Amino acid sequence: MKPHRAHRFLRKVLDFFHLSTPSSKGAVKARSKFSAKLWCVATTTPPLHSISASRGCDQTEVNGQVDDPPQYSFDGAVLEKPISTRSQLEGRIVKLWKKVWLGLYQIDDNEDRYHVERLEALSLGAGLTRTYRVGELQVLRRHFLRSETNNGIASLKLFRGLSLSTLLSVIHILEAYESEIENLRLLYSILRRGQLSLHETADLAQTAVVRTEYMAIAEPMEKRIRQYDIRMNVVNMDICDEAMGFYERQKGEYIYHKAFPNAW
To answer: How much is the pLDDT for 134?
Structure first.
């Protein structure tokens, strides 16, 4: 209730008691006490929106970071919050990392087979040895490495208690990697269409067409992934620096082990 409305209501109540009760000293004293209570209620009760706001801020703090509640109310309706808690973000990172790793780097987690090696074999099969160097897309020549620096997503670790902003940064970069998976599929398609038959010799005109189509996708793709690697290396460094500031020292866990728990 707004202050001016509360005052008018209080005045009407007081006028009613003055008109409808005897004017004895006991009655005057009782009215005074009742008036004081009404005044206290009218002036100290918080508005409804304040109560709702205070209840909406009921959150759980973990390691100095506040996790958002899973639901929130809007206009009387209960809605699901978007992914924002630490556990949800970590789960998203592991799932996204696995998709990127299998989509751009390692073909199978149980065998040492990699996309870049297949691209090289298909390049030879399409007769591109004379028109283009074998071993393009060096940015995809990435194996899982147990090192914290300069290895892109291959050395990504997670520590308990990382800030939400750090986790969101990791997701942002992984989503950029993810966008390149479809381009890799296009490269496969171009090379497979250009494969030479068993006794067919390479035709320069034909291989030139394959090379042009291939490079139109591969060159900008390679530049973008190189930028993602640079940014990922910085984030890897920031993650380790943040973990060093924790009260309890941790070793952390490689995302590779989280994504492929049965591979070790």
So the answer is: 58
Nearest to 155 by CA among 73, 32, 261, 254: 254
Domain residue limits at 187: 82-263
**Region for 251 from its dihedrals, namely left if φ exceeds 0, alpha if ψ lies in -120 to 50, beta otherwise:** alpha
Q: How far is CA 161 from CA 66, 115, 152, 250, 252, in A?
A: 11, 34, 22, 10, 10
Is 249 among the domain residues?
yes
Q: How confident is the model at residue 75 (pLDDT cuts 50, 70, 90)?
A: low
For the chain, the straight-line distance linking the first and the last C-alpha, in angstroms and rounded, comes to: 65
Asked if residue 44 is part of any domain, the answer here is no
pLDDT score at 149: 58
Strand partners, 108: 113
Over residues 50-62, the mean pLDDT reads: 34
Structural domain includes residue 247: yes
Count: domains in the chain: 1
Instruction: At 116, give phi and psi (nearest 5°).
Output: -60, -35
pTM, full prediction: 0.66
- On the question of pLDDT at 86 being above 70, the answer is yes
CA distance 139 to 228: 10
Q: Is residue 134 part of a domain?
A: yes
The count of residues in the chain is: 264
Q: DSSP letter at 104? A: I
* C-alpha neighbours within 13 Å on the C-beta side of residue 148: 14
Residue 65 pLDDT grade (very low, low, confident, very high; cuts 50, 70, 90): very low
Both tokens of residue 221? 């793709």
Q: Are 56 and 70 in contact (CB under 8 A)?
A: no
The span from the CA of 255 to the CA of 251, in Å, is 13
Higher pLDDT, 46 or 111: 111
| Kind of pairing between the strands at 113-114 and 106-108 | antiparallel
